[in-house]
Amino acid sequence: MKVCHFHFGKDGGAERFFVHLVNAFAKRGLEQSCVIRKNRVWRKDIEAVANITESNFRNLSLDRILLPIKVRSMAQSLKPDAIMSWAPRASELMPNYKGCIKLSRLGDYPTKLDYFKNTDILVCNTPGIAEHVKAIGWTRGVEVISNFTSTQASAPIAKAELDTPQDAPVVMSMGRFVKRKGFHTLIDAVAGLPGVYLWLAGDGEERESLEAQVDARGMRNRVRFIGWKDETRPYVSAADIFVMPSSHEPLGNVILEAWAQKKPVVSSKSEGPMWFMRDGENGLLAEIGGAESFAAAIGNLLSDQALSQRVAAGGHETLMSQFSEEGVVDQYLALFARKP
After folding, report:
1. Cα dihedral value 314, 316, 317, 323, nearest 10
2. Would you say residue 255 has pLDDT above 70?
3. Nearest Cα to 278, choosing from 307, 247, 246, 311?
């Protein structure tokens, strides 16, 4: 079976899932071709299992004219069983090719449907996104297939590697440093928890603002900006609590990654987590933008070991039952086998 992917994402949770899925398809013997942005840090994680074409596909570039011609030719020569575009922008590249099923995978809520003129089926990673596309007028196929993550446990790093006392409680979060990810809220929450350290993995346009906030709160001695890491699991494994503070999060891949390391999770009441998290059972939920709400939830987990163990176990159980690699890949393979 052959699959062509178009993916113009940058670096973050969606890209980690793309890498996971491409490698999972390879384990099932699929032949894959990928068109991705230039200079992606995760290219090395798929280049052994996929043929890669690089392009930025910008509006004001020669690629904007030449790449659509190239991918039509690619489809005609490769004769794939499926073409899969990732997010709206990549869906603009979908060729008007009749020889296979054409899927657009959505991890967020599109504002319009113009991007998907050549798409047969929208694959949404939450029920909320599926309901949204129908509500704004989509009348072709819709499927809900969620994400999965690696469930392999990892040995923790020594906290000393990040200049953190071994007995200090550590809160961790990760993602792109943009406003909707809510890291400003998390910093304020930890500011009210003396002795608690905060590890932030990632980078982005808000980095300077976040560092200034840390300095303004007098927290420089207990906040660690650790940048993008090829492998985040040892850091998550070493933390005591994982927090996802986003104001808008269609799913929340990072929660699944924390559950894989059997960590208790505090999440905002954003769209994705409200679908699969149950407060007090597999995590704790805090108010969006509410630093005091996050601080209270973190404090409860640190002071109540039984609660911490219960929600960590509940999270791991949810991960294994609802977000397994085998089940997700099976659903995609069934779609790829459909005739257009």
Report:
1. 130
2. yes
3. 311
Reported in sequence order, the residue ranges of the chain that DSSP labels E, i.e. its strands, are 2-7, 31-36, 50-54, 82-86, 101-106, 121-124, 141-144, 170-174, 197-201, 223-227, 241-244, 265-268, 284-286
d(CA 258, CA 271): 18
Share the mean pLDDT of the chain. 94
Q: What is the pLDDT of residue 10?
A: 85
- What tokens does 9 get? 């994402």
d(CA 257, CA 265): 10
Residue with token string 């002795």: 195
Q: How far apart are CA 275 and CA 50, in angstroms?
A: 33
The tokens of 263 are what? Answer: 């960590």
Give whole-number Cα distances, 328 to 16, 129, 165, 265, 284, in Å: 15, 17, 40, 23, 26
Show the tokens assigned to 105.
């995978």
pTM over the 0.70 mark: yes
- Residue 199 CB coordination number (10 Å): 22
- What tokens appear for 8 in the block? 């113009």
Helix ranges (H only) for 136-171 are: none
| Residue 334: per-residue pLDDT | 94
Residue range 136-184, pLDDT digits in tens: 999 999 999 999 988 889 999 999 999 999 999 999 999 999 999 999 9
CA distances from 109 to 2, 88, 122, 199, 283 (A): 28, 10, 12, 29, 24
Per-residue pLDDT reduced to its tens digit, 275-284: 999 999 999 9
175: left (phi over 0), alpha (psi -120 to 50) or beta: left
- Residue position matching structure tokens 């039509």: 72
Q: From the centroid of its chain, how far is CA 111?
A: 20
